[in-house]
């Protein structure tokens, strides 16, 4: 059957029908009073989602664009930063910083392991001259399925006194509790095609007052991603440039849905789907790539030893029209990843696990009892 794909990857994520329908409306003028009202509602709901009183700035870009904006607005060429990396996206931020002439101290952790906050603490405490301007961290490393201990890392950054903390929350914002103001996070970037439940195309950046002070001395070149004009426009329920109007319609609807569900319920749903997926995979005799205590709420990485991960993905797509993600860079061909971020329900998790059982049986995986995966997931859901 055509057009029946179940998208179980960490992004883009499935889009609710209400959001899709909202995006089909005829565009309106982006300088009109009607659109200003929409922006005003969106901005208030973005503050609610980010748990901040600061303006959350919206740019027309992917999560990578939001992260670039979050780096170039608050740093200068020659500045020294720490980039903690335990996966593809941590490495990307180090590459990005170096592209702008920023001196980057890479803290490289084995892929699949958690960033040890003590390493960051030691480096910050050794910086007696306060030369480190920022620590850049990927909260949810989707290339490996690891959720890093941002709260502890941030505490060490705060003890340093001078450094900013710049956070890639692309696949954690809207999936796990991230109290920006309570923790005092300085720059937090995310993207629309993840927990926001809308298509790709919008990036979001939350900025602290401390970061805005750093903005005043930043000398890196910027124009479209200069966040100063975005901040001024946000206070007037406007935008400095033409936004993707129909995506904004979708964002308005998605944020309304999220407010109706409530933050605690959203976080609990993601935690439940994560547990159900992980316990089901283990019940099927497949090893997980990330440890239980640091499991991403966005994606579960599976490292099978008895079947080819790429064959699992291929048969899942061909027979059941279910899309799973593969490994990236050094993990290509070694893992497959099951997404459970955004508009994913218990039904979706049970569907993908039952299909996975059938695929494993076809590929000759013998280390499982038929029905064990679905039974394990069902036990988690029954705890409600």
TrEMBL record:
Give the Gene3D superfamilies listed for this entry.
Aspartate Aminotransferase, domain 1, Type I PLP-dependent aspartate aminotransferase-like (Major domain)
Output the Gene Ontology terms for molecular function.
alanine-glyoxylate transaminase activity; L-serine-pyruvate transaminase activity
Q: Name one GO biological process term.
A: glycine biosynthetic process, by transamination of glyoxylate
Q: Which UniProt keywords apply?
A: Aminotransferase, Pyridoxal phosphate, Transferase
Name the cofactor(s). Answer: pyridoxal 5'-phosphate
Q: Which residues carry this modification: N6-(pyridoxal phosphate)lysine?
A: 194
Query: Which residue numbers delimit the Aminotransferase class V domain?
Result: 27-328
Positions contributing to substrate binding: 337
Among Pfam families, the record links this protein to: Aminotran_5
In terms of superkingdom, the source organism counts as Bacteria
The similarity comment for this entry is: Belongs to the class-V pyridoxal-phosphate-dependent aminotransferase family.
Official protein name in the record: Alanine--glyoxylate aminotransferase family protein
* Species of provenance: Euhalothece natronophila Z-M001
């Amino acid at each position: 059957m055509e057009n029946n794909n179940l998208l179980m990857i960490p992004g883009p994520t499935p889009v609710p029908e209400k959001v899709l329908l909202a995006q089909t409306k005829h565009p309106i003028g982006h300088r009109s009073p009607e659109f200003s009202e929409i922006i005003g509602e969106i901005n208030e709901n973005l503050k609610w989602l980010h748990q901040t009183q600061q303006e959350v700035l919206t740019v027309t870009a992917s999560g990578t664009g939001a992260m670039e904006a979050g780096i170039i607005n608050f740093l200068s060429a020659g500045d020294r930063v720490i980039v903690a990396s335990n996966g593809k996206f941590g490495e990307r931020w180090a590459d990005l910083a170096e592209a702008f002439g920023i001196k980057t101290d890479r803290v490289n952790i084995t892929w699949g392991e958690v960033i040890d906050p003590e390493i960051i603490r030691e480096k910050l405490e050794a910086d007696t001259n306060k030369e480190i301007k920022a620590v850049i961290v990927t909260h949810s490393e989707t290339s490996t399925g690891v959720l890093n201990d941002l709260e502890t890392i941030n505490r060490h950054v705060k003890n340093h006194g001078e450094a900013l903390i710049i956070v890639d929350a692309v696949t954690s914002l809207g999936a796990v509790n991230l109290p920006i103001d309570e923790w005092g996070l300085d720059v937090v970037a995310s993207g629309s095609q993840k927990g926001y439940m809308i298509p790709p195309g919008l990036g979001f950046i939350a900025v602290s007052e401390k970061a805005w002070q750093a903005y005043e001395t930043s000398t890196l070149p910027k124009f479209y991603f200069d966040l100063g004009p975005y901040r001024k426009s946000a206070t007037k329920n406007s935008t400095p440039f033409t936004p993707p109007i129909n995506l904004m319609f979708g964002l308005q609807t998605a944020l309304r849905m999220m407010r109706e569900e409530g933050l605690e319920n959203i976080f609990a749903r993601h935690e439940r789907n994560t547990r159900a997926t992980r316990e089901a995979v283990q019940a099927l005799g497949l090893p997980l790539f990330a440890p239980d205590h640091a499991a991403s709420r966005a994606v579960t990485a599976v490292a099978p030893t008895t079947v080819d991960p790429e064959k699992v993905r291929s048969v899942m797509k061909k027979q059941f029209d279910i899309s799973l993600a593969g490994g990236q860079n050094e993990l290509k061909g070694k893992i497959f990843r099951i997404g459970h971020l955004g508009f994913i329900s218990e039904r979706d998790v049970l569907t993908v696990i039952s299909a996975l059982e059938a695929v494993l049986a076809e590929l000759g995986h013998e280390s499982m009892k038929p029905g064990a995966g679905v039974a394990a997931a069902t036990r988690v859901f029954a705890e409600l």
